[in-house]
Write a structure and sequence with these properties.
The protein is of the alpha/beta class. It has two domains: 61-170 and 302-330, Response regulator (Rossmann fold); 172-299, Response regulator (Rossmann fold, 3-Layer(aba) Sandwich), CATH 3.40.50. Helices cover 43% and strands 16% of the residues. It has 13 helices and 14 strands. The chain has helices at residues 4-11, 15-22, 30-42, 49-55, 74-87, 99-103, 113-126, 172-185, 201-216, 233-245, 256-268, 287-290, 302-319; strands at residues 61-66, 91-96, 131-135, 141-142, 153-156, 159-160, 167-170, 192-194, 226-227, 250-253, 278-283, 296-299, 327-330, 333-335. Strand 8 (192-194), helix 9 (201-216) and strand 9 form a beta-alpha-beta unit. Helix 1 (4-11) packs across helix 3 (30-42), helix 8 (172-185) packs parallel to helix 9 and helix 10 (233-245) crosses helix 11. It is elongated.
Length: 340
């Protein structure tokens, strides 16, 4: 492996001069800088950032812990974090707990869950990261972080019950309000809703947004307009069946997968979505464009969420002060397609 000593010998300069150029410090002429960087590239020199930063007592290396990289929102959040860290000259280490793959949808009630979280946090700490961004697979509250854990942490897509740990989430309530309001603007007064699981944070917040939109238009809430789902396509089918029996012709589905069940029901019973029935989903996943007609859906700002989580963490590190707010929310947008 090429060292700065090798580059110094090749360029006939001192090791200190090469070090100053590599670390962007000291006064070195442009000609010497160009020669050193040209030689470094030719010799395939790879800077040892870890060793350099340890000497400076600042690693500029961030730990990212994902509860499961295969859950649909996680890659976009990681990409947003990566984007911001690149701009600020930080690198990152990525840890994947694979909790969903190992233990299913309710992995966070798995008996060994908290132990796995602490183990991964300690692994990251042992690698000398400056801070950690913890990406939750489902929005829930983590209570196992010890008070004496000295590395700054930011939670993305969930909450951590520890003083000084901010959380970044997208605004479920605002997104559901937007979806319901879009149906109201089409002249619909009786708007059905297919919910997610009742114990889900997302379900509760989206329900609030739905209620708020109706309240603003002075439309009384009718519990008969609500069909309980569980995020699956099958529950969307059952929800559509119930709502159509109530005479509902406008539906807000709390996710795009349940909306797929609505499409199946309508097709089997001779109804045309976008004409006989208006439909809005939530998540704006790729499948929305594959449905026919294409599904209008609430778009999640996942990339932006990742960038903001990274910004919060670097603010904690560089300004050395806690965030003024505990929870930070990023607004959603609505993608209009033929179903609306």
């Amino acid at each position: 492996m090429t060292t700065i000593k090798d580059i110094a010998q090749k360029c006939n300069v001192s090791i200190a001069t090469v070090s100053n150029v590599i670390n962007d410090r000291g006064k070195v002429s442009k000609e010497t800088k160009d020669l050193i960087w040209k030689t470094a590239r030719e010799m395939n020199y790879v800077p040892n950032f870890m060793a350099r930063n340890l000497k400076q007592r600042q690693t500029k290396n961030i730990g990212i812990i994902a509860e499961d990289l295969t859950i649909f929102h996680t890659p976009a959040v990681v990409d947003g974090i990566n984007s911001y860290l690149d701009e600020k000259g930080y690198t990152f280490l990525l840890g994947n707990l694979r909790m969903f793959q190992k233990h299913g949808d309710e992995f966070y009630i798995f008996p060994e869950y908290e132990g796995k979280v602490l183990e991964e946090l300690n692994i990251m700490a042992s690698k000398q990261v400056s801070g950690i961004i913890y990406i939750e697979g489902h929005c829930h509250t983590i209570t196992c972080i010890p008070e004496n854990f000295s590395i700054p942490i930011v939670a993305a897509y969930g909450f951590i019950e520890k003083e000084g740990v901010p959380s970044v989430l997208y605004n479920d309530e605002q997104g559901a309000w937007m979806a319901t309001s879009a149906l109201l603007k089409k002249g619909c007064k009786e708007i059905g809703m297919i919910t997610g699981m009742t114990d889900s944070y997302h379900t509760r917040m989206r329900m609030q947004g739905y209620h708020k939109a109706l309240y603003e238009q002075k439309i009384p809430f009718n519990p008969q307009w609500v069909a309980e789902g569980d995020w699956t396509k099958e529950s969307g089918y059952r929800g559509a069946e119930k709502l159509m029996r109530q005479g509902i012709r406008a539906i807000f589905s709390m996710n795009d997968l349940m909306a797929g069940g609505v499409y199946d029901y309508m097709r089997e019973n001779g109804y045309q979505i976008g004409k006989d029935v208006l439909l809005v989903g939530f998540d704006d996943r790729e499948i929305c464009k594959a449905y026919y007609p294409a599904l209008s859906s609430v778009h999640l700002p996942l990339f932006e969420l990742g960038r903001y989580a990274a910004k919060l963490l670097l603010d904690l590190l560089e300004e050395d002060k806690p965030s003024e707010e505990k929870n930070h929310y990023i607004n959603c947008s609505l993608k209009y397609r033929e179903s609306l």
